[in-house]
Amino acid sequence: MASTTKTTTEKLPDHYYQWDADNRFPELKRALANHTANLQKLQKLCDDLSNAQNHVDDHVYAIRVLDRLHDDFCYGAEAAGKKVNKFMKTYCGVYDADEFVSYELLRSIDALKEVQRKNCRKVVELEDQIKIAEEVKSKGWDTYHALDLKHKAEFEKLKAAEVKEADAKKSQEEVAA
Q1: How confident is the model at residue 2 (pLDDT cuts 50, 70, 90)?
Q2: Higher-confidence residue: 89 or 78?
Q3: Domain ranges, ordered by start, for the chain
Q4: CB proximity list for 143: less than 8 A, separation 6 or greater
Q5: Nearest to residue 127, comparing CAs of 59, 56, 42?
Q6: Looking at 56-153, which runs of residues are DSSP E strands?
Q7: Whether the model pTM is above 0.85
Q8: Closest CA to 28 of 117, 134, 143
């Protein structure tokens, strides 16, 4: 008596990696896409951190020069000189250039140091974000890997059943011959 059920099973490839499970199962595809997005975010944060670290000392030389000038105006002899004092008095309305310039230099130094502090804070913030992103990436990879192992076990069961069926069919053909 002939079998009335028609089987439309596909022939499985020899190895799991040839089965293309990432595209075959939507949850595995989503997990891989999630992991890829997490990895890209982590890479961008690492790039941003590297860039921020390159800018931490952007103004160090300017601060050093302005600080030395400030010291010269505060603690040196008449730093501005008579010509500068006369110029400042005539065109800027400033009677004591040494004091005025010293004050302005301090404001400039403070502004540059504030920029440095912001750069340092940015480095620390990015380091904290990287720690979190690494944890998220690791959890996403674990999720993907667990799903992949589940589907690999499924594949191996199907492959074993296919091999067993092929062996049974081959033995039936040998008996029939």
Answers
A1: very low
A2: 89
A3: 26-158
A4: 31, 34, 35
A5: 42
A6: none
A7: no
A8: 143
Q: Residue 158 in contact with residue 21, Cβ under 8 Å?
A: no
Query: In the numeric block, which tokens belong to residue 134?
Result: 């690494």
pLDDT band at 77 (very low <50, low <70, confident <90, very high): low
What tokens does 61 get?
């030389």
According to the model, what pLDDT value does residue 68 have? Answer: 87
Ramachandran category for residue 24: left, alpha or beta (phi over 0 → left; psi -120 to 50 → alpha): alpha
Cα gap 83→85, rounded to integer Å: 5
Q: What is the DSSP letter of 55?
A: T
Q: Is 29 helix (H, G, I), strand (E, B) or coil?
A: helix
Separation between Cα atoms, residue 138 and residue 121, nearest integer Å = 26
Which candidate, 110, 115, 101, 112, places its Cα nearest to that of 71?
Answer: 101
118, 60, 72, 79: CA torsion to nearest 10: -90
Handedness of CA 112, 115, 117, 119 (dihedral sign): negative
Residue 101, class by beta-carbon neighbours within 10 Å (0-12 exposed, 13-18 middle, 19+ buried)?
A: buried
